[in-house]
Structure to design on (258 residues):
């Protein structure tokens, strides 16, 4: 598939999707979001893909929704077209894990796009922020909701109300990113994580993604029950027999997604 604003490569069961609008620091316009949603949907359906990686450039993961695109829009326009909803629904619908590899700016919709992924690995150059308040608007892709779940109320209020940026070290301390690596190692470390996940049984990776996400949607009691039942269900798979047998026989498991 030929795209203009993203680059997609599939290698060793990992699809790497790179945002590629350098002239606008990967700002999210209609075209980019549509192409991204299409590429993610295709990768989710591709048997040769087990894990997805979403990344940008050294300077910017994405500097937010495209301000040029939004400036002239009215309430009626954005409400009737339900701005950003169809694409983000598509981006977050898939069951295979998505890792965000973030270097440079991840601001506004860029920070929110990273948070739509399953976890974030940050370069030490990464800067996260919800600066929409400076534009006379507010976050619209999860900056008041997902960010609050990641970092708690106080920091989410601070980020959204002051518009200040958070560096990678603070983002790791706050729980927004899973780890920080030197910028030059960002893709090496991310690909190593992606390949490690790709080796596992895909039934298990999907079950884990579904279960962790359930923690955000339900009570502890219901979440624990859901987890227990999914754990029980995995005993119906051949991969459970293979994984446990391989451990006891001191060999590498050969998972077959069955
Ligand atoms: N939309 C459109 N274009 C953008 C952009 C954006 N969000 N961010 C950067 N650009 C463009 C700039 O206009 C500039 O283009 P020109 O060369 O044609 O002037 C180019 O990218 C390079 O940007 P700068 O010259 O500003 O680069 P810098 O290094 O001086 O600053 C920056 C970098 C701090 C990221 C600065 O560009 C910036 O503050 N960008 C806007 C960040 C922002 O406000 N994001 C939130 C957007 S709203 C949103 O996302 C809503 C939502 O939640 C859905």
């Amino acid at each position: 598939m030929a795209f203009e604003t993203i680059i997609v490569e599939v290698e060793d069961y990992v699809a790497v999707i790179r945002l590629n609008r350098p002239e606008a620091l990967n700002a999210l316009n209609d075209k980019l979001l549509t192409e991204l949603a299409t590429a993610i949907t295709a990768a989710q359906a591709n048997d040769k893909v087990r894990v997805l990686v979403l990344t940008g450039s050294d300077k910017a993961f994405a500097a937010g929704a495209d301000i040029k695109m939004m400036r002239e829009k009215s309430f009626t326009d954005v409400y009737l077209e339900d701005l950003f909803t169809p694409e983000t629904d598509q981006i977050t619908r898939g069951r295979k894990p998505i890792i965000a590899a973030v270097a440079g700016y991840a601001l506004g919709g860029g920070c929110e796009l990273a948070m739509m992924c399953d976890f974030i690995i940050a370069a030490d150059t990464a800067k996260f922020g919800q600066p929409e308040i400076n534009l006379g608007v507010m976050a619209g892709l999860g900056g008041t909701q997902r960010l609050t779940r990641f970092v708690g109320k106080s920091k989410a209020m601070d980020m959204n109300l002051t518009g200040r940026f958070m560096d990678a070290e603070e983002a790791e301390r706050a729980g927004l990113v899973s780890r920080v690596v030197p910028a030059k190692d960002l893709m090496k470390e991310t690909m190593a994580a992606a390949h490690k996940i790709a080796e596992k049984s895909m039934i298990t990776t999907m079950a884990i993604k579904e279960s962790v996400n359930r923690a955000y949607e339900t009570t502890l009691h219901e979440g624990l029950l859901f987890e227990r039942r999914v754990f029980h269900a995995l005993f119906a798979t051949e991969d459970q027999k293979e994984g446990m047998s391989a451990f006891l026989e001191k060999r590498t498991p050969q998972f077959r997604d069955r």
About this structure: Strands lie at 6-11, 14-19, 51-55, 60-62, 98-102, 105-107, 119-123, 127-129, 165-167, 179-181.
